[in-house]
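Quick start: read one record
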Amino acid sequence: MSETVNVIGAGLAGCEAAWRIAQSGINVKLYEMKPDKYTPAHKYSGFAELVCSNSLKAARLESAAGLLKYEMELLGSLTVPCAKENSVEAGGALAVDREKFSDAVTEKISSHPLIEIIPGEVTALPEGYTIIATGPLTSGAMADVIKELCGEGLSFYDAAAPIVTYDSLDKEKVFYASRYGRGEADYVNCPMNKEEYLAFYEALISAEKVQLKDFETHPFSVYEGCMPIEELARRGIDTMRFGPMKPVGIDDPRTGRRPYAVVQLRRENREGTLFNLVGFQTNLKFGEQKRVFSMIPGLENAEFMRYGVMHRNTFINSPELLNADFSMRTHPEVFFAGQMTGVEGYMESAASGIIAGIAAVRKIRGLEPLILPKDTMTGALSAYISDPFNSGKFQPMGANMGILPDIGVRIRDKKEKYGAYAERAVNSLKKELERIGYEDHC
């Protein structure tokens, strides 16, 4: 075909997008600024460089990460087979030799007859169908292009609170209420007495933090409202009780009295399966978050679907800007892929590249958009980043079982339950791909 798709960025998402398009018989121009220019986090000249870790998370199908990778393979992934071919021992996880993995992806992309690699920094949006997959450390000139496309829908810091599943809360210890009884009782409240609060305070201020990289400006100086909960606590023993843990206007229906302090949980998704800890953005290490936040009454056995993060991470307000196939609502020939869309994690970014690539192919060929079922992990992530319900409070999300629709059957054993979710997802994806004749024309 005469059409060519531009892909900007040869990270995981960009490589998956370029591969999917080229494998469908359409030409690709893949723009990559390395080795001419590097971001502060990148060091290796190859494509699909893994920066923070060499782990691609769990391999077993009955895990969110394993299910995602299985779905990606069904969709024709490049990176998952390359990862398996260059894996290293990591227990139940899929981990890779970073350089060998990057080299394998680079060789596949470079040798494809329909992919033209164009080195150098992109400073203007190319004409025609374009997928932007420049990552969370997008260069200044390209960031300006994205700002122009997205307007105010661009954020530069990922300041997110932990997210837990509703099913894992101790319903005997929490209660629904809104402050002063205004509106619907939409918040789940975790009340604390003085003894519980003081123990929590001591654990919080002594917990171990993540060390920010040199190139990451500390978020405190950017936005006071993004203050990490542990830093707020260090300002004084009662500071949290006058901030996110204030009990004013909330009475515990079981005692009829105001708690000493209260942690509020707010619905994270439309289905009400996920709740975030309001005002608990944090720089604590993940293990410390689990230990300290499990001290909150009602959260002793909480299942954390996402831990709090606070670091530089450029991302767009996707629910306002993108469709579920990662195309822009206002610019139908422009697509986004990768971490910038609000999918969090290596494989999540790669999966979004596959979806964006498929979307470009189908748009060029005049086919209906491929909107994957929400009971698949890939479809659930696509739905999350494009659901207007999340606009205005959007924060990045990685693959987790909590974003899948309830299976409708109560299964107590977690492994068995997640196995049922995975089986449903695989069957649903296969059925949809068969319906559209995916192998024939993407």
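The chain has two domains: 4-153+317-441, 163-306.
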